[in-house]
């Protein structure tokens, strides 16, 4: 059966052989396919038995990305060879290096080789580099010890092409991996080319949101990040993309070609409306792969780390300067001496930028070099001052060591020490080791022994702690411990001064660990309450102002507890509210505060809190976006109870923000008071600036009435509130009792802050006032400080002072795919100088007491010049010690005021005379210039930088100007033929506008503006200009008496005229109101400005002021007369105020104060709907033809301007020769405006106010009630 079956299935021999062969072929094909599949590896790998040769090219360009615009750039070309040393260790050799620069107009300029820099770079790159490579990742890069970090970074840029995570499945994946930009998120997409079997890989790296980014930021620690602002736009956006072609082999994938493109968009505004652009790209192409190859002899190598870019000494590489740094000490000494010489008499605007070169040189020096420079420069006052002002910018431990030596040797004055310490500590790098060294400075006996240096050192140390914690989170408590110890020690010793200084320093530090210590000084918060004064409580609450952002929850809890303390001074509760809102509280917390305010009994606290909530409710800045919504709801809840409060405890804030500019500003003033004194306890003002996604606190000022409040009490006897002379007399009567104040308490205190950091604090005590009183007392004998100053003036003295100050050095550096650092930097510096020579004479000279000077004739001859030059830069580009390229905005603003005058003063006669020489020479008073350039600098030729204006000047070009060109140039002068002097304003502006890229293009282009004082042709030769101020004029000049008689006669004539016309009646009535009696009131003060022309008749102007006030009506009169031959031009001004809300003024001019006349009235009233109204009116009987023509030409623009401002318009006939305006309070924060002109009316309803009009309503209601 079986055999039979077998026979039946048996095949013919030839057919059997054929099928067997086919099976074997098929099986073999399967095996080959399987083997091929297993050998086709795509993951990046290098075979240590082979040598790989590539061409490499990397270039970077900076510009605007538009045609016909300047750009700058750099290009590096080379060949690279990689050979193996072991399965995971490889040697990289670079050869045929060329470096080229680009600087010029796009499309018209190309890269030009730089032989010197090429030679320098090739020498470094020619040395072998060793690296580890496994699993597609580069690790452990090694180089020779003398190879710079910049060169290693360039090698990192090359090796980054061999660093990628390749997967065959899935084809789209993402992961976080370390690369040249840091630890960043990468997104991969892979595709296999079916024809070549090569894999194409696209890799996109999110370099804006790296977890650990190869970047560094300096100079912005005090600028708070504003997350809400970033939601409206960005000022910097970066992207990078890699494209690989991977050839599979059995050992792994070989990079056949690779390309990378990185783009960065930067704008001082919002990048979506135009930006400066960086385009960095690199390409690598495989030339050959060869077997074997002996690796180069590498010699001694040092480990330089992994592939992540390493930032080099950025402080020495100032992006605006390129100079040979050989022998830095000698060059620094030479340049400091040269700067002192250049600015010896006046500021030389041409050399102020050299200060940056000195800063760079000083940052290259060692401790010994600085000591040697001090020995050489300290002997000369000018050299010494420049050296001390500039060494503070070294910003590391070297400056602390230098200052410590000076303080130990006591070879600097207290004034020099305070200035150097303040700048050095606030510009110090915020590193942990520098914080420790700063503690040593703060505790030096030299510092503690001086009343001015000690607070400066403590405040500056607090600022350093704040900056340190801004870059190191969490921040250890140890850095702030000295300040905590100081506060606790002051509390134990009950030393108020020590407590206040320590708390203010803790406020600068803003350290979260200080909250527990600060709480010990606050009522209702401390576990063991301690009774401290209100001034200490105020300092403690303010000490939480910066901690509020770092630990909002705990600060909110403390602030709420302080607010709820009923036995707490209302001013302390007001400060608690301010600190609470610094934390940006939630809606729930705002609601809690609102609920407690509804039951608040203290009207001062309620008034302040309500106005503070109103301010935030109206705020337009991004940081208050959500908070304004919460506060608007709170205001609606509280309006019925507190909307009409108007007490001296109030808050006022105005702000604005523009999304296109990504900029804004905020200004506020807070007045804190209570029921115990009519005098506010504390007045605080602060300003903020919003830009580039950060909040920068500008200057803040505060003044606090300490024991001074005791003098005033809840009211001032005789004070009516109209600020008349009787009110000032009432205040003076109170202040006369200042000697009754306690000796051990400050009368008042004041502080100032910059960038949120307190830099100045002073207590004004009774002993200081007693010292000043004794020094300026009429009975003060010789030997007092005032006498010493007078004697110095009599001998004659010369004084010269200069100060360079680098106010801003803000820098952001980050890696690029090329391994070169891209930097965005802002620098702002000022060089200020004053030169003065003066000599005084006293007649009679025999004076024994200071009071004798009151009736003596004092003359003073003085001559000198004062001024400053401000330089400002913004840089966006590559910055290394080898070369720089990028876009650079450069602005310069010099101000200079030369003076020469003779003065005579007699205090008893209330007479001051000044003689100013005639203007014989033109000088520039102030100027501003700016432009944006494409810049290139390299160390091969540092003295020949290349700068091309970003927008070329097409005014002299043969080509047709582009349609968006805008060029304005003007010169305007106002000259006086009487005084022989004139003032000229000239400007030139060149711009190219693109609406879709505004506002960036508003700063691009050339700008030059200046105000100049020039000689003018005079009617008579002018020798000098005589100015005279007489505060006790005893009689009227003949011209004035004649004027009064003329005005009286005109008044009588007009009164006798009869007319039925209403307008004539009004004119007659108005004429009678302005005219004066024949017996003119005595003048209050007279001012003369006369051109002296030798023996010729005098010519100039005489101004006389009168005060003919009667009863409760305040009046003021002024007569301006032209003095000279047959001169009869005069101007008469008559103003009166029946109340602060009812003002009138009339101005008439011409021959004997006619025929031209304008009257102005402004009065508060009540509208038909019982709403407060302010009405103003301008009327004119006759005006000069030139004025009428000018006003008519301006009137044509009013309808268009009104339309753009949201006003409506109606054509109607109104009163002729009259313009009136009406402002009606529509609500607590809006008004209705109506403006009537002769031919039409413009109006707008519900115009929003930056402040509440509740105080206006309250005042109006009180006035009506009194009526």
From TrEMBL:
InterPro entries to which the protein is assigned, alphabetical: Lipid_transp_b-sht_shell (IPR015819), Lipovitellin_superhlx_dom (IPR011030), Vitellinogen_b-sht_N (IPR015816), Vitellinogen_b-sht_shell (IPR015258), Vitellinogen_b-sht_shell_sf (IPR037088), Vitellinogen_open_b-sht (IPR015255), Vitellinogen_open_b-sht_sub1 (IPR015817), Vitellogenin/Apolipophorin (IPR050733)
GO molecular function (one): nutrient reservoir activity
Keywords (A to Z) from UniProt: Disulfide bond, Glycoprotein, Phosphoprotein, Signal, Storage protein
Record has Plastid as a keyword: no
Vitellogenin domain span: 46-683
Annotated Polar residues bias: 954-964
Coiled-coil annotated spans: none
Name of the molecule in the record: Vitellogenin domain-containing protein
Source species of the chain: Oreochromis aureus
Lineage of the organism: Eukaryota, Metazoa, Chordata, Craniata, Vertebrata
Gene this protein is translated from: vtg3
């Amino acid at each position: 059966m079986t055999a039979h079956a077998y026979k039946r299935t048996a095949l013919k021999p030839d057919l059997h052989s054929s099928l067997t062969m086919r099976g074997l072929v098929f099986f073999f094909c399967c095996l080959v396919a399987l083997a091929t599949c297993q050998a086709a590896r795509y993951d990046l790998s290098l075979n240590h038995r082979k040598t790989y040769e590539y061409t490499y090219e990397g270039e970077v360009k900076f510009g605007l990305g538009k045609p016909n615009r300047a750009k700058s750039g750099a290009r590096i070309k080379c060949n690279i060879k990689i050979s193996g040393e072991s399965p995971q260790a490889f040697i990289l050799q670079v050869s045929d290096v060329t470096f080229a620069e680009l600087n010029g107009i796009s499309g018209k300029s190309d890269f030009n080789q730089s032989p010197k820099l090429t030679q320098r770079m090739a020498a470094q790159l020619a040395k072998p580099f060793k690296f580890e490579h496994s699993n597609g990742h580069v690790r452990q890069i090694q180089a020779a010890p003398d190879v710079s970090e910049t060169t290693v970074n360039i090698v990192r840029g090359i090796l980054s092409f061999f660093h990628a995570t390749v997967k065959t499945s899935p084809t789209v994946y993402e992961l976080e991996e370390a690369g040249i930009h840091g630890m960043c998120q990468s997104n991969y997409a892979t595709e296999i080319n079916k024809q070549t079997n090569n894999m194409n890989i696209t890799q996109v790296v999110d370099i804006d949101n790296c977890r650990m980014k190869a970047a560094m930021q300096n100079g912005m620690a005090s600028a708070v990040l504003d997350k809400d602002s970033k939601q409206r736009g960005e000022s910097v956006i970066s992207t990078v993309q890699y494209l690989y072609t991977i050839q599979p082999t059995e050992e792994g994938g070989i990079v056949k070609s690779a390309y990378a493109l990185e783009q960065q968009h930067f704008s001082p505004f919002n990048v979506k409306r135009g930006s400066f652009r960086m385009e960095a790209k690199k390409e690598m192409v495989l030339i050959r792969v060869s077997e074997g190859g002996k690796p180069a002899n590498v010699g001694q190598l040092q480990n330089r780390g992994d592939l992540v870019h390493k930032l080099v000494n950025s402080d020495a590489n100032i992006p605006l300067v390129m100079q040979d740094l050989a022998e830095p000490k000698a060059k620094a000494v030479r340049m400091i001496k040269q700067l002192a010489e250049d600015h010896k008499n006046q500021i030389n605007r041409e050399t102020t930028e050299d200060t940056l070169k000195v800063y760079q040189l000083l940052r290259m020096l060692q401790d010994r070099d600085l000591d040697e420079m001090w020995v050489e420069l300290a002997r000369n006052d000018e050299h010494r001052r420049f050296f001390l002002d500039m060494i503070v910018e070294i910003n590391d431990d070297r400056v602390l060591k230098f200052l410590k030596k000076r303080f130990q040797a006591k070879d600097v004055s207290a004034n020099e020490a305070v200035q150097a310490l303040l700048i050095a500590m606030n510009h110090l790098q915020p590193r942990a080791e520098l914080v420790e060294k700063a503690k040593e400075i703060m505790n030096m006996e030299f510092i503690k022994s001086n009343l001015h240096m000690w607070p400066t050192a403590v405040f500056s140390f607090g600022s350093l702690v704040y900056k340190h914690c801004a870059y190191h989170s969490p921040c250890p408590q140890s850095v702030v411990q000295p300040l905590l110890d100081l506060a606790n020690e002051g509390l134990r010793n009950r030393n108020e001064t020590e407590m206040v200084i320590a708390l203010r320093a803790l406020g600068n530090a803003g350290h979260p660990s200080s909250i527990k210590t600060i709480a010990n000084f606050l009522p209702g918060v401390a576990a063991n309450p301690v009774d401290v004064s209100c001034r200490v409580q105020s300092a403690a609450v303010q000490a939480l102002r910066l901690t509020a952002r770092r630990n909002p929850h705990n600060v909110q809890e403390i602030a709420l507890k302080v607010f709820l303390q009923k036995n707490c001074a209302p001013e302390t509760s007001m400060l608690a509210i301010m600190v609470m809102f610094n934390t940006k509280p939630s809606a729930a917390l705002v609601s809690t505060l609102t609920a407690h305010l509804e039951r608040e009994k203290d009207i001062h606290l309620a008034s302040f809190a309500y106005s503070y909530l109103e301010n935030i409710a109206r705020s337009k800045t991004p940081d208050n976006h959500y908070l304004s919504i919460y506060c608007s709801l709170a205001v609606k809840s509280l309006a019925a109870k507190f909307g009409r409060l108007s007490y001296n405890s109030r808050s006022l804030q105005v702000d604005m923000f523009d999304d296109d500019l990504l900029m804004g500003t905020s200004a506020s003033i807070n007045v804190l008071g209570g029921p115990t004194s009519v005098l506010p306890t504390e007045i605080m003002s602060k300003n903020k600036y919003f830009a580039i996604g950060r909040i920068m606190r500008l200057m803040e000022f505060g003044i606090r009435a300490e024991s001074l409040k005791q003098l005033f009490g809840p009211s001032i006897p005789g004070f009516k509130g109209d600020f008349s002379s009787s009110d000032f007399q009432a205040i003076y009567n109170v202040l006369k009792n200042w000697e009754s104040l306690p000796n051990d308490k400050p009368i008042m205190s004041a502080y100032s802050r910059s960038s949120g950091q307190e830099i100045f604090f002073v207590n004004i005590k009774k002993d200081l006032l007693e010292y000043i009183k004794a020094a300026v007392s009429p009975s003060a004998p010789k030997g007092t400080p005032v006498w010493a100053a007078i004697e110095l003036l009599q001998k004659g003295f010369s004084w010269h002072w200069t100060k360079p100050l680098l106010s801003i050095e803000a820098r952001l550096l980050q890696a690029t795919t090329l391994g070169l650092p891209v930097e965005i930097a802002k620098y702002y510096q000022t060089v200020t100088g004053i030169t003065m020579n003066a000599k005084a004479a006293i007649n009679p000279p025999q004076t024994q007491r200071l009071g004798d000077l009151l009736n003596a004739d004092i003359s003073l001859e003085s001559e000198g010049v004062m001024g400053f030059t401000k330089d400002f830069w913004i840089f966006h580009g590559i910055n290394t010690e080898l070369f720089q390229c990028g876009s650079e905005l450069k602005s310069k603003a010099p101000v200079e005021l030369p003076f020469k005058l003779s003065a005579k003063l007699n205090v008893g006669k209330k007479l001051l005379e000044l003689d100013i020489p005639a203007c014989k020479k033109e000088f520039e008073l102030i100027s501003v210039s700016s432009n944006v350039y494409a810049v290139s600098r390299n160390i091969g030729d540092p003295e020949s930088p290349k700068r091309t204006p970003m927008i070329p000047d097409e005014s002299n070009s043969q080509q047709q100007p582009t349609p968006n060109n805008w060029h304005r140039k003007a010169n305007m002068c106002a000259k006086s033929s009487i005084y022989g002097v004139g003032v000229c304003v000239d400007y030139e502006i060149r711009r190219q506008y693109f609406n879709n890229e505004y506002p960036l293009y508003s700063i691009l282009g050339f700008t030059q503006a200046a105000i100049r004082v020039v000689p003018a042709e005079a009617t008579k030769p002018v020798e000098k200009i005589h100015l005279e101020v007489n505060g006790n004029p005893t009689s009227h000049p003949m011209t004035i008496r004649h004027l009064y008689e003329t005005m009286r006669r005109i008044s009588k004539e007009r009164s006798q005229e009869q007319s039925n016309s209403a307008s004539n009646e009004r004119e007659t009535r108005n004429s009678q109101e302005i005219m004066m009696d024949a017996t003119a009131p005595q003048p209050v003060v007279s001012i003369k400005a006369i051109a002296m022309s030798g023996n010729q008749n005098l010519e100039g102007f005489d101004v006389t002021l009168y005060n003919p006030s009667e009863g409760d009506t305040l009046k003021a009169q002024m007569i301006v007369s032209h003095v000279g031959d047959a001169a009869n031009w005069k101007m008469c001004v008559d103003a009166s105020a029946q109340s602060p809300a009812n003002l009138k003024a009339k101005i008439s001019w011409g021959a004997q104060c006619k025929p031209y006349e304008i009257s102005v009235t402004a009065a508060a009233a009540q509208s038909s709907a019982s709403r407060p109204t302010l009405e103003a009116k301008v009327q004119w009987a006759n005006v000069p033809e030139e004025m009428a023509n000018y006003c008519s030409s301006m009137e044509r623009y009013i309808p268009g301007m009104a339309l753009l401002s949201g006003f409506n318009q109606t054509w109607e006939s109104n009163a002729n020769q009259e313009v009136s305006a009406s402002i009606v309070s529509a609500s607590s924060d809006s008004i209705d405006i109506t403006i009537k002109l002769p031919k039409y009316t413009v109006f707008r309803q519900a115009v929003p106010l930056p402040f509440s009009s509740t105080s206006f309503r309250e005042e109006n209601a009180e006035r009506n009630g009194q009526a």
